[in-house]
Design goal:
This protein is of the alpha/beta class. It has two domains: 183 residues, Rossmann fold; 237 residues, 3-Layer(aba) Sandwich (Rossmann fold), CATH 3.40.50. It is 33% helix and 26% strand. It is built from 17 helices and 24 strands. The strands form six sheets. The chain has a six-stranded mixed β-sheet with strand order 6-9-10-3-11-12, with helices on both faces. The relative contact order is 0.11.
Length: 500
C-alpha cells in the first residue's frame, strides 16, 4: 500500500434508510491511492448499500462523502463514473454482439474527422489489456466470453474512464483457481498504477492473500478497520458476527437408517457415466470435485431436470421416471439449485409467494391460492430459519444473498422431502449465515432426512459429510468416509494426481 496522509475517498458517518429499515447507520470507509482494501460483513451488514451510494444508485440520508478532496456528487451512476468511481459487479453486463473494444468504449467511442476511429479504438483497448497484463483480442466479440474475461473487459472499461476508485463486488465467486490468480495479478497492477481497489468477498483466505487493509461492517455500521497484517481470520469473524464462531460446521451425529435413494449406472452422453451410489436416511453425502467434474449435472438428472440416457434412480424401492421433476418432487425429492437467483427464486416476486410456491396445491382451493395461507407458511419458515426481512410482501430481490438462500431452503423444506439435494449450499453467503445453514442441514439429517450436498469448499465437505464421493470428468473416482477424508486425498483423487 502506498503511504498517504489524505484518503482518495472518505465516507463519514453515513446513514441510509428504506422505509422503516435502517440499512446504514454510522458507516465509514476511507481509501488510499495504491491500496487494495477489503470490505467485509455478513449478508445484510450494509456493504451493498454503502457501495451503491458510491456507485450513484442511492443518495445517502446523512453523513458525508469526499472523493479526491471534493464533495461527492450523489444520485447518478453517470456522474459517479465521471467523478472516477467504477464498480465491477459479480455478473458483468457486456453487449454480446459487440467487440471487446466496442464494449470498453461503449457510448464513448473515440472520434476522428467526425467519425468513429475504429482502429484507434482497437489500439487503445489493446493498450488497456496490455496494461492489465492480459492477452485479449480487442476485435473479438464478447459473446461466449468467460466470466473471468468479461470482468477483465469491465476493468479495462474502468481504466478507460480514468477511474481512481475501482470496486470489485464478489469478483471471484464464479472463477477457477487459475482465473482467481490472474484477477489478483490484475488487481495488484491496478494498485501499482495508483488506483484504490475495493475488494468485496466472503472468502477470507483470498482477502488475507490479496488485501492491504480490511474494513468490517455489522448491522449497517463500520465496526473496525485495520491493516490485514494486524488481523486474523478469527478476529475478522468475531467483528463480522459480534461473537465467536467456534463451530462453523456444527455436524451432529445422526443415526443412519435404511437406503432411501439408489442410483444405478446413471449416464448422460457428454456429461457423466456409470454413476452408482446409495443414500441412507439421516446421511449427509457430499459430491466433491473440481468445477466441471459433472456434480451439478448428476443431481439435476436425479431430480429430473435433465433426462439421463441410461441407468435408473430408485426412491424407497420405486423407480422414478427420467426427466420428470414434478414426479420426483411428488415422490419426495427436493433440489436447492446452485444459482438461487436464476433457478431458485422469482426475484421480483414477494417473499411470501416465493416461500409458498412449492405448496400451491395444498394452500389453494378451487384453483385459487389463499394469500393468508401463503403468509402463514412464509411466516412459519421465516421464524424457523431466522429470516431477516421487513415485510413478507417485499420482493425477494431486496433480501441479502444469505436470506435469499434461506427462502429457497424454506420453500423446499416446506414440502417435507425424504431426500434433500443442495447444490453449493453456502456459495456467496457470509460466515454467520453459513453456520446457520450448516446447523439446519445437520438438524434435518438428525431427524432422518437423507441429504446430498454438492460443494466446492473442501472444509465444508469434510466438516459436514458422513461420506464423500469424488467426481472427475463425469465419473465417480473415489469414496471416503468421514474419518478417512483429508483435503490432500480429495484433491489428489479429484485431479488424478498421486500423493506419497
Amino acid at each position: 500500500m502506498v503511504s498517504q496522509q489524505t484518503p482518495v475517498l472518505e465516507m463519514v458517518n453515513v446513514a441510509k434508510a428504506f422505509g422503516g429499515v435502517q440499512a446504514l447507520n454510522g458507516a465509514e470507509l476511507a481509501l488510499y491511492s495504491g491500496e487494495i482494501h477489503a470490505l467485509l460483513g455478513e449478508n445484510g451488514a450494509g456493504k451493498s448499500t454503502l457501495l451503491k451510494a458510491l456507485a450513484g444508485v442511492h443518495r445517502i440520508d446523512s453523513g458525508s462523502i469526499h472523493l479526491n478532496g471534493r464533495d461527492f456528487e450523489q444520485g447518478s451512476t453517470r456522474t459517479s463514473r465521471e467523478q472516477g468511481v467504477a464498480v465491477i459487479y459479480q455478473e458483468p453486463n457486456l453487449f454480446p454482439d459487440l467487440t471487446l473494444a466496442e464494449n470498453v468504449f461503449a457510448g464513448r467511442q473515440p472520434q476522428k474527422a467526425n467519425q468513429v476511429d475504429w482502429s484507434g479504438m482497437r489500439r487503445e483497448a489493446k493498450n488497456l489489456f496490455d496494461q492489465l497484463g492480459v492477452k485479449l483480442d480487442p476485435s473479438a466479440f464478447a459473446q461466449g466470453l468467460s466470466i473471468a474475461d468479461q470482468q477483465i473487459v469491465e476493468i479495462a472499461k474502468a481504466l478507460s474512464t480514468k477511474a481512481t476508485v475501482i470496486v470489485m463486488d464478489e469478483p471471484t465467486a464464479a472463477l477457477s483457481s487459475k482465473e482467481v490468480d490472474r484477477l489478483f495479478k490484475v488487481s495488484r497492477n491496478l494498485a501499482a498504477q495508483g488506483c484504490a481497489v475495493v475488494f468485496v468477498s466472503h472468502r477470507l483466505d483470498e482477502v488475507f492473500a490479496l488485501c492491504d487493509r480490511i474494513t468490517v461492517m455489522r448491522d449497517g455500521a463500520t465496526v473496525g478497520t485495520a491493516p490485514t497484517a494486524e488481523l486474523t481470520e478469527a478476529k475478522v469473524i468475531k467483528l463480522m458476527v459480534g461473537r465467536e464462531i467456534s463451530e462453523l460446521y456444527p455436524k451432529q451425529p445422526a443415526k443412519l437408517g435404511d437406503v432411501v435413494l439408489r442410483v444405478d449406472n446413471l449416464g448422460l452422453a457428454g456429461q457423466f457415466a456409470d454413476i452408482n451410489f446409495e443414500l441412507r436416511s439421516g446421511e449427509i453425502l457430499a459430491l466433491a470435485g473440481l468445477v466441471g467434474a459433472g456434480r451439478s449435472e448428476v443431481v439435476r438428472a436425479i431430480f429430473g431436470i435433465d433426462k439421463y440416457d441410461s441407468g435408473s434412480v430408485t426412491l424407497n424401492g420405486k423407480k422414478l421416471k427420467a426427466g420428470n421433476p414434478a414426479l420426483s418432487m411428488n415422490a419426495g425429492i427436493a433440489l436447492v439449485p446452485e444459482d438461487r437467483r436464476q433457478q431458485g427464486l422469482f426475484m421480483p416476486t414477494s417473499i411470501d409467494k416465493n416461500s409458498a410456491v412449492t405448496m400451491l396445491k395444498r394452500i389453494s382451493r378451487f384453483f385459487l391460492v389463499s394469500s393468508r395461507s401463503e403468509k402463514k407458511l412464509a411466516s412459519k419458515w421465516g421464524e424457523i430459519l431466522q429470516l431477516k426481512y421487513s415485510s413478507g410482501s417485499d420482493p425477494v430481490d431486496r433480501l441479502s444473498g444469505g436470506n435469499q438462500q434461506k427462502v429457497v431452503l424454506a420453500k423446499w423444506l416446506a414440502t417435507d422431502p425424504k431426500v434433500l439435494i443442495i447444490d453449493e449450499p453456502t456459495r456467496g453467503i457470509d460466515v454467520g449465515t453459513k453456520s446457520e445453514v450448516h446447523r439446519l442441514i445437520s438438524q434435518n439429517a438428525q431427524e432422518g432426512m437423507a441429504i446430498i450436498m454438492v460443494s466446492s469448499e473442501l472444509p465444508e465437505v469434510m466438516g459436514m459429510a458422513d461420506r464423500i464421493l469424488v467426481m472427475r470428468e463425469g465419473r465417480l473416482v473415489g469414496e471416503f468416509s468421514r474419518s478417512e477424508a483429508t483435503a490432500e486425498k480429495i484433491i489428489a483423487v479429484a485431479t488424478g494426481a498421486s500423493i506419497s
